[in-house]
Amino acid sequence: MKGVGPQRADILAKELDIHTFGDLLVYFPFRMIDRTHSTTIANFNPEEPYPVFRGQISDLHTVTSGRSNRLQATFSDGTGNITLVWFQGLKWIRESLRSNTPYIVMGKPSQYGGNWQIAHPDIEPAIPGDNHPVHTLLPVYRTTEKAKAKGINSRVIARFTETLINQMPPSLPETLPPHIIAKYHLMDRTTALRNMHYPSTIQEWQQALFREKFEELFFHQLDYQYTRTSRRNHSVGRVFTVVGDHFNDFYNNNLPFSLTGAQKRVIKEIRADMRSGRQMNRLLQGDVGSGKTLVALLTILIALDNGCQACLMAPTEILATQHHASFLKMLNGLNIHVELLIGSLKSSQKKDIKRRLANGDIDILIGTHALIEDDVIFAQLGYVVIDEQHRFGVEQRAKLWRKSNIAPHVLVMTATPIPRTLAMTLYADLDCSVIDELPPGRHTVITTHGTDAKRALLFNFMRQQIALGRQVYVVYPLINESENLDLKDIMDGYESLSRSFPQPQYQLSIVHGQMPADAKAYEMDRFKRGETNIMVSTTVIEVGVDVPNATVMVIENAERFGLSQLHQLRGRVGRGASQSYCILMTKDDLSRNSQQRIQTMCSTTDGFAIAEADLRLRGPGDLQGLQQSGMLNLKVADIANDEPLVRATRDEIRDILLSDPDLLQPQNLTLKRHLSLSPLAEQWGKIS
Ligand code: ADP
Ligand code: MG
Predict the structure, then answer these.
(1) Cα dihedral 630/632/638/640 (nearest 10)
(2) Is the CB of 290 under 6 A from ligand 1?
(3) Is 439 in the pocket of ligand 1 (CB under 6 A)?
(4) Which of 298, 546, 567, 573 to mutate to test the pocket of ligand 1 (most atoms within 8 A of CB)?
């Protein structure tokens, strides 16, 4: 492309992941600026994310402080002045800017030494140059600090996309089926791609955006649903016909309580899958404490009754260890061999377990990611249960599939209730079961909001509860930016608690991410046995940890947690017979959004309601675990706001696959072509 030499090509590739014309074409602007609407320096709204000013630049000069230079200019529009500052790319900027020329300046002003300034603003000549035709609407592209410093700002990207659009053939092949385009009045692909960058009106941009969102969700649904359908239609599943001694012995002799209606229903759904001759891929959603582990155990026993082995995979060693212990306890007296495989075992122990597993001497293997490794070989793996699924990606699930010549049945359990739209999107390849009922006799956890001013009250309350023989969690957030800072927070907190709860009257445990696994396990164990009164920890205790005697959950800096995460943490208490409490500690001056989130937590304990609120208040990117897992890789669609589109695309794909499951009809050819290029579908295809 004209204007892109090797150096710029390198920055585009490394910083913005743009390697080809195709990449650039779908590098969409995140907003459009209407150049005919600008604001004035005297009257702009500091809350507005991206104000637009028109004015002139004067007094462009370099300022040297210490060893570094910066470039500074005064920008005035007749109503006031703003300072423009550049710290990088000085030479390039100095050469490209002219005094006494009208410019449009965009960027977020911040207050600095009593003056408003914009660092690295986007600047655009207000009068078009010869090589720069006018567009009323100006696309604004995301870029990075590094790219900007090398001169690749939004404006430069706009020039590239403009060149590209001008060079583009008059029409590109359509990707969506004609009947879908007609039904939803979608803009055709070529027009939409042009209008995503250079629309003439905002309406045109919105129509283009609608088409792009539709297309993205449509193909996302196609990938997942096709996978699911073809797996259903073509994959052979083990047929578990009998419910035998293992199940019945446990059910009749070892089950400590009767199942809830929801547990029974879900077990029936799983049983039906296991008998069907098709491989089961089922998601089990159930709020914290709803008794998913028991469902896992009972259905595992069915697998054993049919001559198969089963495994249970958990996201942390603590959880795996805990599952192992509770399985051993519940299966006590039954002739079933359960083992735990985790990274911290001695290699001789691991070797021994692997050998016995391959021989078929182990019935149930419980573990962490270690289970996925290639040298873990089962004699006859028939059933896989994955606990707290949102931390496992699709590929990890797939790896387990391959451990058996006939794909094992898979149950994925999640305690993070997911909003319906998200579930439709994320788990479109799975069937879904929900436990919507808690075991009887649970008290609602009483949740309150506290600030530092009330800390003495909090400590008194903790002392009262401890005097009653109860235990307390105090949890600190993990903020990924700096592990050391996180550690400092929790250490400071631990010290101050140790002063207010002195030994020997009080015993404290501490668990955080930088401790070795065995030290963590030791501290968890002491707390579990009731030897310590207070567990100070980071979020490692978040999922699944079960200490029924703990009745108080104190969450420090609660405003920094997501709602779903707070809900998970709160689920650690209220597991026994006593009334439990959750205290959300925050700083005094909370933003409106944080206040709303804390209020939501105090007013409801319904995990699904909380998940919906979380999605609304924070957006899907912040939902726990999603970002890291890369599972929700949508570029234009927005799960929080595009629910109708998610539904529509889901239903359309479902109908298409119902009438033409293998996509052989001519009107579905484009879909078949899409699948042949889709890495996800290809991978699934190989597995099934
Ligand atoms: P989760 O769904 O969060 O994994 P668990 O499986 O850990 O929940 O169960 C929470 C607690 O409820 C456990 O102590 C478990 O023994 C208990 N429990 C499970 N099912 C029942 C039931 N039907 N009746 C009474 N208690 C139950
Ligand atoms: Mg659990």
Answers:
(1) -110
(2) yes
(3) yes
(4) 546
Residue 293 CB–ligand 1 contact under 6 Å = yes
Chain segment 326-360, per-residue pLDDT in tens: 999 999 999 999 999 998 889 999 999 999 999 99
Q: Is 575 in the pocket of ligand 1 (CB under 6 A)?
A: yes
| Measured distance CA(311)–CA(410) in Å, rounded | 10
Nearest atom in ligand 1 to 294's CA: 6
Alpha-carbon gap, residue 379 to 169, rounded angstroms: 57
Residue 90 buriedness (CB in 10 A; 0-12 / 13-18 / 19+): middle
User: Measuring CA to CA, which residue among 485, 473, 655, 623 is closest to residue 556?
Assistant: 473
> Among 101, 105, 102, 55, which residue's Cα sits nearest to residue 85?
105
CA dihedral sign, ordered 259, 261, 266, 272: positive
Task: Report how far ligand 1's centroid is from the alpha carbon of 650 (Å).
Answer: 34
Residue percentage of the chain with pLDDT more than 90: 48
280 token code pair = 């089961």
Q: Which of 293, 322, 388, 433 to mutate to test the pocket of ligand 1 (most atoms within 8 A of CB)?
A: 293
Measured between alpha carbons, how far is 231 from 234 in angstroms, rounded to an integer? 5
Give the C-alpha separation, 630 to 621, whole Å. Answer: 10
Ligand 1 close to Cβ of residue 255 (< 6 A): no
Distance CA 245, CA 445 (A): 39
> 173: helix, coil or strand?
coil
Instruction: Give the separation between CA 237 and CA 275, rounded to whole angstroms.
Output: 9
Cβ-in-10-Å burial (0-12, 13-18, 19+) of 377 comes to: middle
* pTM of the shown model: 0.67
pLDDT in tens, 361-398: 999 999 987 887 888 999 999 999 998 755 556 566 66
Task: Compute, in angstroms, the gap from residue 218 CA to the centroid of ligand 1.
Answer: 38
- Among protein residues, the one whose CA lies closest to atom 26 of ligand 1: 439
Q: Residue 555, by phi and psi: left (phi above 0), alpha (psi -120 to 50) or beta?
A: beta
Ligand nearest to the CA of 293: 1
> DSSP 3-state assignment of 285?
strand
d(CA 527, CA 521): 10
Query: In sequence order, what are the residues at sequence separation of 6 or more whose Cβ sits closer than 8 angstroms to the Cβ of residue 441?
Result: 577
pLDDT tens digits for 176-187? 999 999 999 999
Gap from CA of 670 to ligand 1 centroid (Å): 48
User: What is the tens place of the pLDDT at every residue in 69-80?
Assistant: 889 999 999 999
CA 359–ligand 2 middle distance (angstroms): 30
Report how far residue 196's alpha carbon sits from residue 425's, in angstroms, rounded to the nearest whole number: 24
For a ligand 1 pocket test, name from 288, 292, 294, 385 the mutation site with the most ligand atoms within 8 angstroms of its C-beta: 294
Which residue in this structure is represented by tokens 């001519």? Answer: 666
**Within 13 Å of residue 482, how many CA atoms lie on the same side as its CB?**
5
Domain architecture of the chain: domains with CATH: 6-167 (2.40.50.140), 245-435 (3.40.50.300), 446-604 (3.40.50.300), 643-685 (no CATH)
574 Cβ closer than 6 Å to some ligand 1 atom = no
